[in-house]
Amino acid sequence: MTMDGNAAAAHVAYMFTEVAAIYPITPSSPMAENVDEWAAAGRKNLFGETVLVQEMQSEAGAAGAVHGSLNAGALTTTFTASQGLLLMIPNMYKIAGELIPSVFHVSARTLASHVLCIFGDHQDVMACRQTGFAMLAEASVQEVMDLAGVAHLATIKSRVPFLNFFDGFRTSHEYQKVEAMDMEDLRPLVDYKALQEFRERALSPMRPEMKGMAENPDVFFTHRESCNRFYDAVPQQDHRPRVPSVQLLRCSRRREYHHLYGFCLRGYPRSHRLRGCQGQQETRSHQRTPLSPVQPQVSAGGAAEERETYLRA
Questions:
Q1: Which of 10, 82, 153, 223 makes an SS bond possible with 34, Cβ 3.0 to 4.6 Å?
Q2: Do residue 46 and residue 169 come from a single domain?
Q3: Which of 167, 193, 219 is the last residue before a domain boundary?
Q4: Which residues pair with 19 in a beta bridge?
Q5: What is the per-residue DSSP string for 265-299?
């Protein structure tokens, strides 16, 4: 199937979405447009429902609608970029603080400063690091197709909301021939027990509870620390496919994503300078500095012998 990054993200997001609160902004608009078009045509999601799409008056309104819909027990998604993502930050704090599963799909773009610019970089997503959202980045259209599903599966299982992003224009509008995920791939991987627990936590007059209270500092910080165990459970520390989201990457696809387990080091293992890469920059770095096929043998002699072993490899 030939498509661009926006279409790949929308393709997977539609399967896991019951409500989509949207507001268009370049370069993420095609994601929302695709979802709206498919919903109008009656396309069904994983749960046999047509997605309810609601366009708001701004990204701030879209984020508020996402938060409210999630509290009502509906799996809700939005699509945005740049200044639009910044308008969502207040609600992102609330969604993460309340441990509500959700995915925001972002085609990363420059923030407007002295002037507006639509250059694709990561200023917008980097401004959201402190919100409590887990972040997952893709470097190609095929990765968007694969890892967008991981974000949705992982947020349902872990309760940690995900910000799934890729390079604006460079990936969002790049056309590639990809192996598409379909419902038969994804349906068996959903944690339906966790999904039912999410629905049971929804606001209901039959189960009254109090939310949005004020707390004194001692109780507030105790509650903030109590969420750490949910974040600790997200990464796969032992490199084994214990959760469905990692099984997804191994099921007949034969594609490995080592960065799901943390940082992936390429180049000389004991370099004095390191460069962090994400998105398409990571792909370009892979082409220049491939992983060594063997581990260098370190002796008591020091780095010279290690470097020679590495260069031979």
A1: 10
A2: yes
A3: 193
A4: 52, 76
A5: --S-TT-S------THHHHHHHHHSPPPSSPPPP-
